Amino acid sequence: WSSLTGAIGIFLVFVLVVIFCLLAFLLPRRRETSKQEEHVIITGGSSGIGLAVARELVMEKKCHRVTLLARTESTLKEVQKNLLDEAKKLNNSDGGDDVEVNIYPVDVSNAEAMQKAAKHICLDCTDAIAPTVIFNVAGTSSSAAFVDTDFTEYERLMRINYMGSVY
Q1: Which residue range(s) make up the domain with 115?
Q2: Rounded mean pLDDT of 160-167?
């Protein structure tokens, strides 16, 4: 039985390798794009992780267009100005040719507002630079003890942290 078991094991490994190779060659791959064709959308782009991701993309010129989504328009405008100013200083240029930073104020916990934002962003893509990457990093937390937290607070957290990514 041991030789039969060994032969079956070798055969199964061979079959798995063949299947893996076929899948690797036959499955569609992400289309290769140049940085001039990259359009990155970042939810929660006005602070925290979202702002850090935006700053990295803009400073390192990793894409042509960055679209930031967050709730507060005034904060988004300030972030947009700061990112473009930093890029200009870093590159000793006008910054406009290298990267474009767009902003869109929206509450990620509002499904209707997110659908409207998505349509607006796609309609702005008349130059064929459709979104290629989305960073869903909008989120919040609550520091209250579990037993002291009201159920409505949990609902709010779920709408922002979970449904905000789904919408």
Answers
A1: 35-166
A2: 79
Cα–Cα distance for residue pair 62/54, rounded to 1 Å: 10
Q: What is the pTM of this model?
A: 0.71
Domains: count for the chain = 2
Q: So what's the pLDDT on residue 78?
A: 94
Residue 73 and residue 18 share a domain:
no
Q: What SS3 state is found at 133?
A: strand
The predicted structure's pLDDT at residue 157? 84
pLDDT confidence of residue 52: 92
Helices then strands (H, E): number in the chain?
6, 4
Q: Cα 30–119–154 angle (5° rounding)?
A: 90
Query: Pick from 106, 105, 107, 109: which is nearest to 152 by CA?
Result: 109
**CA 117 – CA 153 distance, rounded (Å):** 25
Query: Three-state SS for 101?
Result: strand
